[in-house]
Amino acid sequence: MVEHRHLGNSGLKISEIVYGNWLTHGSQVENDVATRCVHAALDAGITSFDTADVYANTVAESVLGEALEGRPRHELEIFTKVYWPTGSKGPNDSGLSRKHIMESIDGSLRRLRTDYVDLYQAHRYDTETPLEETMQAFADVVRQGKALYIGVSEWTAEQIRAGHALARDLGIQLISSQPQYSMLWRVIEEEVVPTSRELGLSQIVFSPIAQGVLTGKYRPGEPLPEGSRATDTKGGATMIKRFMDDDLLERVQGLRPVADELGLTMAELAVAWVLQNDNVAAALIGASRPEQVEDNVRASGVELPAEVMARIDDVLGDAVVRDPAMTARNAPQQRPS
User: Fold this and answer.
1) Taking burial as the number of CB atoms within 10 A of a residue's CB, which of 51, 162, 232, 308 is the most buried?
2) CA 109 to CA 325: how far, in whole Å?
3) pLDDT in tens, 256-301
4) Contacts (Cβ under 8 Å, ≥6 apart) of 216
5) Keyword NADP, does the record have it (predicted)?
């Protein structure tokens, strides 16, 4: 069964494998399959579920809410996010303004069929809204009982520090960061992780298997597997494009003997790798089939010896992206519409 860890310096415990429905529910897979995946997660001991209002333009939240209906609410930790455009995508339908946050939380709760979310996250940093306005709105959401804790996603270390200071002054808890993190993408290690550790936040990391690349199913010089994320024209192919390099894919194949010697699949090795970082509270996994959930949860509780971690570094070499400036570089410079 899946183990649990504290989220930041709070008393909240979450499953160290979190089920997320980005790019799947409401788009890639039919609702009945999505429901089976959620139920497979529950059966495996996952109690934490992550979504966002923008996923499939709000449909993913509805699918998750329906799939979780009937489960005791106190046994679950439900996370969602706000920032990206939703609905009719009018001038105030994105960002972290007070108006958008207060309207968005109500929509998310309605779709998720719950009175509150355990974690409400700023899906990106809003350069067009004063941070004071954003954090005051989050504080009001918490005081209204609509969210228990606050988190951020893909914020820089400086932005996290500023947000944490305001949250503390307002008497609310900013306890988490949700960045991209994997063996291949380590841009948070130099600045975001040390800052988070100092301030009492921990990471809920997405893409631990690098959009599927670290499963080893993409082989250099070979056609893309049918039905894979790299062939998904609804968004998956765009997200995975940065990893579709023959040299990188060849290095990834070099991880297969490492996984085999440990009795792990390559996906399990990748998920276990991110969980070795003591500032990582959980790894987010997605699934288009229930069996994928069952495969990934086996990474829970796995401890990788130091020599294995060093060997992985040797295999991947300079294919690893480490530049901390990539967080800011990939962030929207203005509110999307």
Assistant:
1) 51
2) 35
3) 999 999 999 999 999 999 999 999 999 999 888 899 898 889 999 9
4) 252, 253, 255, 256, 266
5) yes
39 burial class (0-12, 13-18, 19+ CB within 10 angstroms)?
middle
Q: Does domain 4-215+273-304+320-329 have CATH number 3.30.10.20?
A: no
Alpha-carbon dihedral 191, 197, 203, 208, rounded to 10 degrees: 60
| Alpha-carbon distance values, 145 to 38, 106, 115, 283 (Å) | 26, 12, 8, 27
pTM: 0.94
Residue type, position 206, single letter: F
Exposed e or buried b per residue across 166-196, where buried means at least 16 C-beta atoms within 10 angstroms of its C-beta: bbeebebbbbbbbbbbbbbbbbbeebbbebb
Secondary structure class of 120 (helix, strand, coil) = strand
Catalytic residue among 55, 83, 181, 218: 55
| In the chain, domain spans | 4-215+273-304+320-329
Read off the amino acid at residue 70: G
